[in-house]
Amino acid sequence: MISFGKDIIRVAAVAAALLAIAAPGKAQDVPVVDAVIGNNFGHLPMFVGVDKGLFKRHGVDVRLKVVNTGTDMVTSMQKREVQIGDMSVTTFLKARHGGDPFRVIGIIMNDATRDNADEPLAIVARQGSGVQRVEDLKGKRVGLAKAQTSDEYFKMVLARRGMKYEDITIENIMAPPALAPALKDAKVDAVVSWEPYNTAVLEQVPQSYVVLRGGGHLSYIMVATAHEPTVQSNPQVIRAFLTGLAAASQYTRKNRGEAVEIFAKMVPNTDIAVGKKAVQHISYDPRLSAAVMKAFEAAEDDVIKNTLQGAARLVVPEQFAASFLNEVQKAHPEYFDDLPPLATN
After folding, report:
1. pTM to 2 decimal places
2. Residue ending a domain, choose from 213, 246, 275
3. Same domain, 208 and 228
4. Same-domain status, 18 and 103
5. Is 343 inside a domain boundary?
């Protein structure tokens, strides 16, 4: 059974200042960077990079603060508790619309060959709910984390079918481990979430079933972001971080089972068997491609249409500090050589 708890888990103490980057003292010392990440598999390479020493190998000591939701990630960045924040593309875009000075420096969960890879997201229903297809959700109770990626995804699913969000009773369940009990106790008819929680629900709620997994509604991308001042004043630390992340992403791709076991060491009460099933639905391709940019443009369109009606459209390419990732790919092609080729057009 998975139960990650409602409280924030601190893997290490977070810095009190904007840049808790220690000046090297001894030869073996490396700069320290605090990063906030989520307690889900969208951030798996970050856990792996810390556990296997891959960030340190490439010149930066990453310390993790693990939280429940994208809102927690943004809040931690806003409070300057951390210098790097992992978050979904929709969470990032909404933060940028709110004026937060973040830039995308890297990509974590991603399929660079497609602009609509959303298989980690799913709608799961309980037996007896009467829900066999999305259209059956009208008038039903659906549990999800409001204002998070699962909520944005659900809005897109409904919109594609000409359905209204207001015709569904939304139960706001911000702590993902609470989804399975809510469905099992019939407090909701269906839930919407990301992995490993969809698989956890399927395992924990007898005879629950997938109504829809993915469906090509959006590209569920998890990005690494940094404050603009950090990007400008510490480029060497950003490069070191991204090199470690590239190494960790490849290790995760090649050792998914071990990656889940590493996750379980840092996130209490993880069901490893469930995790090893869930991780098969996720891609960890850190490349920036034309398909990824198209996915960002589409996500911006959907955020404005479904959540921030009337907002001025962001210039998507300006949200990236892309040069760092390009430099890492050129300097370390060995961390990308197992990935499929990208379309050239």
Report:
1. 0.83
2. 213
3. no
4. yes
5. no
Q: Do residues 285 and 205 both lie within one domain? A: no
**E strands, 82-204, in order:** 84-88, 102-107, 122-125, 141-144, 169-172, 190-193
Q: What are phi and psi of 209, to 5 degrees?
A: -155, 160
- CA 111 centroid distance within chain: 13
Asked if residue 342 is part of any domain, the answer here is no
Helix, strand, coil % in the chain, rounded to nearest 5: 45, 15, 40
Q: Is residue 345 part of a domain?
A: no
Q: Which of 90, 71, 69, 67 is nearest to 154 (CA)?
A: 90
Domain count, the chain: 2
Res 12: pLDDT: 36
Per-position DSSP letters for 236-291, written without gaps between them: HHHHHHHHHHHHHHHHHHH-HHHHHHHHHHHSTT--HHHHHHHGGG--B-----HH
Render 152-173 in DSSP notation, one character per residue: HHHHHHHHHTT--GGGSEEEE-
Residue-level pLDDT at 219: 87
Tell me the mean pLDDT in the region 68-90.
95
pLDDT band at 180 (very low <50, low <70, confident <90, very high): very high
Same domain, 158 and 289: no
Range of the domain at 170: 122-213
Burial 122-161 (b: 16+ CB within 10 A, else e): bbbbbeebebeebeebeebbbbbbebbbbbbbbbbbbeee
Q: Indicate if 103 and 128 belong to the same structural domain.
A: no
Cβ-based burial of 311 (10 A; exposed 0-12, middle 13-18, buried ≥19) = middle
Is 56 buried (19+), middle (13-18) or exposed (0-12) by CB count in 10 A? middle
Amino acid letter, residue 155: K
